[in-house]
Design goal:
The complex is a heterotrimer of chains A (84), B (363) and C (335). Chain B has 363 residues and is α/β, with parallel strands linked by helices. Chain B contains 15 helices and eleven strands. Chain B has three domains: 132 residues, HypD, alpha/beta domain 1 (Rossmann fold, 3-Layer(aba) Sandwich), CATH 3.40.50.11750; 155 residues, 3-Layer(aba) Sandwich (Rossmann fold); 41 residues, no CATH class. The longest helix of chain B is centred in the middle third of the chain and has 16 residues.
């Protein structure tokens, strides 16, 4: 019911009074996305997109977020930044 | 890919799985609500990483599985009307109606088009003003804002040739329908993360309280799913039953207020029939009077279409985790992925299709 | 009635196989008894000829990395190469829709010429028909190709054995995604070009490398998954893949995540798999990587002995899932 993927906003343009849309980059793939549900989003922000509509803005520091979540769950792990 | 790769890292998945093995001491049966979660579990084989005591039941959170056969038949009838362009998500094209599916209708000349977004259907309406363009609007709360935006956009651009055939459903009512059954085996729920991205998590608190069941809002990447299972099992082991958020990067307690406001403007709660489960009060979204012009049910006369479910198909019991495909009389005989009789045999992560192909979960 | 032709019958999946087995093979028969292969092998005196035919109906006609013209020539060259033959001559039958701009036709024909020159093959004969507007989608091309099978070369699924290494010539999914981007309905832009390219030079290098080659197959419609399932069924073996070894470019992965596709089922037009004995795997890999079209070749799996034929893939978490043929072409998902 909800395949949603993260993408980076490249530009934002008003469509109608309170409707916005913009081009979102999903990693070498561009698509127009409706941004009316995240009116505070600006170019450079990451948003979560489902069926062409952004439903949430993603926090800036995703790596720290993930590790904080795991610590909260009592998960022990070693994770150096440059594992890629 | 940012926001995805880190949540697929094998060493993090391994770490969460190990924490889970340490936490689990008893047998627990959990249900992941969303078809997208089921897809990740089947694709990455995540259930094989769980301790043997844990059983995962696939929940009813997939539009392919729960859209009632009446709506499929109406979509097919509309598609066969020569003046109609019927737009739909790809998921719905192989779902069996009473006679055939949308793909078969297309081969008989119906103009059926697959779209990625409801807003693409609005563009098609704008480019084909002399044709009726109907979008088959299925989905759960996550998809409601996009369908609401499609109607609001068509309304502003006065596109009177655009309408929605709506089959929108919501999660809490169907969870209540499952949990109140005496023979319900589900002890913990992994709630659908993206539904909660829109709606927030508060709506689950009454369910967790009344049915004494932990409800953990869970994501879709491998780390997210195992993390959700870990938090749910920890609650069960400690005898707690709360709503917990294992997907904080996108889920807030109140969800997305802009999106919820938009849905409120266009839709209102109403009773909805769920395929295999039946009618559930307050479990669906219907188009409000103010936007009735965009409601395909009112624009076209669809009432006298006679619909009927395949009598042997037990998809309802399977969707509620109360039966398995092997209990079904037509499973693997008349009902196969090439000729699905019931919806759970259609999509690759439908329970019956997963059983047929992988013999998965045949515990 | 027996129903109607559906898009799925052309999708490279099980419905297409069903159509071939139930309607086409009984009518055309399969005298050589050769398993369904990319080319038919004909013995003419002392020479073994490879003979193939294909039709190209791609929409749109032009896309990043190629056109219906380069696709038609390379596709035919590749079918011949996959049976171990070197291509000699190609025919091209053009079906044109009334109203097709002549500069589009010119562009397609010059693409065909360039592709033929690159692959070192000649277009020796052709035909042109025009149909009324609306009876075809701009232009279709049907080709036939003739090649000569090298002496002592016997390549096909019948030779695949447990222990063989499975070599993949490069990253997958480029062509299907490039076409999606060119249609601009689901994607506005994608920085992926089609992998459309001739494979005959890579095959020649491989066959001259001294490595024993059991089977070759180019990965077109239905993607790598469908081809491997077909070969596993035809050879009665079990193919086990390693997910981490299979290269997928970042933008193809992004497009598949967005639309709900699995890259294993996305079409390619310049990629092949080679089945070689384990002992020759390193030799074969080194040789294949010297060809420009397969510079990033990798060993992505092995052939095993199990009771039933099939294909499975081991995830980066060490778990295994089975791979099946889709009934038709893959549809995008929202769930």
């Amino acid at each position: 019911m909800c395949l949603a993927v993260p993408g980076r906003i490249r530009d934002v343009k008003p469509v109608q009074e309170w409707m916005y849309s913009g081009t979102v980059d999903f990693g070498g793939v561009l698509r127009e996305v409706n941004l009316s549900c995240v009116p505070e989003a600006v170019p450079g922000d990451y948003v979560l997109v489902h069926v062409g509509v952004a439903i949430s803005i993603l926090p800036e520091e995703e790596a720290i977020q993930c590790l904080a979540e795991l610590e909260h769950a009592g998960v022990e792990f070693e994770y150096e930044e440059g594992l890629e | 890919m940012k926001y995805k790769d880190i949540y697929q890292k094998p060493e993090l998945v391994k770490a969460v799985a190990e924490a889970l093995h340490r936490t689990t001491t008893k047998n627990w049966t959990l249900m992941e609500v969303c078809g997208g979660q089921t897809h990740s579990i089947v694709k990455y084989g995540l259930d094989a990483l769980l301790p043997p005591q844990i059983t995962l039941l696939h929940g009813p959170g997939c539009p392919v599985c729960v859209t009632p056969v009446e709506k499929i038949d109406r979509a097919i009838a509309l598609a066969k009307d020569h003046n109609v362009i019927l737009c739909s998500f790809g998921d719905m094209l192989r779902v069996p109606g009473t006679k055939g599916d949308l793909l078969a209708a297309r081969s008989e000349g119906a103009d059926v088009r697959v779209v990625y977004s409801p807003l693409d259907a609005v563009k098609i309406a704008e480019n084909n003003l002399q044709r009726e363009v109907v979008f088959f609007a299925v989905g759960f709360e996550t998809t409601a804002p996009a369908n609401a935006l499609a109607i609001l956009q068509a309304y502003r651009r006065e596109l009177l040739n655009f309408s929605l055939l709506v089959s929108h459903v919501m999660v809490p009512p169907v969870l209540q329908a499952l949990l109140k059954e005496p023979d319900c085996k589900v002890q913990g729920i992994l709630a659908a993360g993206h539904v909660c991205t829109v709606m927030g998590t508060r709506m689950y608190e009454p369910l967790a309280e009344r049915y004494q069941v932990p409800i953990v809002v869970t994501g879709f990447e491998p780390v997210d799913i195992l993390y959700g299972v870990q938090m749910c099992v920890r609650q069960l082991e400690e005898g707690r039953h709360e709503v917990e958020n294992a997907y904080p990067r996108v889920v807030k307690e109140d969800g997305n207020l802009h999106a919820r406001y938009m849905v409120q403007q266009v839709f209102e709660t109403e009773q909805r029939v769920w395929r295999g489960i039946g009618a559930l009060p307050g479990s669906g979204l219907g188009i409000r009077k103010e936007y009735a012009a965009f409601d395909a049910e009112k624009r076209f006369c669809l009432q006298e279409i006679h619909s009927e479910e395949c009598p042997d198909c037990i998809s309802g019991l399977i969707l509620q985790g109360r039966a398995s495909p092997v209990d079904c009389p037509v499973y693997k005989i008349q009902c196969t992925p090439d000729h699905p009789l019931g919806a759970p045999m259609v999509s690759s992560e439908g329970v019956c299709a997963a059983y047929y192909q992988y013999g998965r979960g045949a515990k | 009635n027996r129903g109607r032709v559906e898009m799925a019958h052309g999708g490279g999946g099980s419905k297409m196989q069903q159509l071939i087995e139930e309607i086409l093979l009984p009518a055309f028969g399969n005298p050589e008894g050769a398993a369904r292969h990319d080319s038919a092998l004909l013995q003419v005196e002392k020479i073994q000829l490879a003979f193939t035919t294909d039709s190209y109906v791609v929409r749109p006609l032009f896309f990043q990395g190629g056109s219906i013209g380069s696709l038609a020539v390379n596709g035919t060259v590749n079918d011949l190469s996959m049976s171990g033959a070197y291509p000699v001559a190609i025919s091209a039958g053009l079906i044109l829709e009334e109203g097709l701009p002549l500069e589009h036709l010119q562009a397609v024909v010059s693409d065909m010429q360039t592709a033929a020159r690159t692959a070192g093959v000649r277009i020796v004969t052709g035909d042109t028909k025009v149909v009324e507007r609306g009876r075809c989608d701009g232009m279709y091309i049907n080709t036939a190709g003739v090649g000569i099978v090298r002496d002592g070369v016997d390549i096909g699924p019948h030779r695949v054995q447990p222990g063989d290494a499975v070599i993949l010539s490069g990253d997958i999914g480029r062509h299907g995604i490039a076409i999606l981007a060119a249609r601009e309905d689901m994607l506005d832009y994608c920085d992926t070009a089609s992998d459309c390219a001739p494979l005959n030079s890579a095959v020649t290098i491989l066959l001259n490398s001294g490595a024993e080659v059991h089977c070759l197959r180019d990965l077109t419609r239905g993607g790598m998954a469908s081809v491997l399932v077909e070969i596993a069924q035809a050879s009665g073996t079990f193919i086990h893949l390693r997910e981490e070894a299979i290269p997928v470019s970042a933008s193809v992965r992004a497009a598949c995540e967005l639309l709900g596709y699995d890259p294993l089922y996305i079409a390619n037009e310049g990629r092949f798999v080679a089945f070689v004995p384990a002992a020759d795997a390193e030799t074969a890999l080194k040789a294949i990587r010297t060809a420009s079209v397969s510079g990033e070749a990798k060993i992505v799996g092995t052939v095993q002995k199990r009771e039933t034929a099939g294909v499975s893939i081991c995830s980066k978490y060490g778990t295994e899932r089975h791979i099946y043929m889709l009934s038709g072409e893959q549809l995008p998902r929202i769930c």
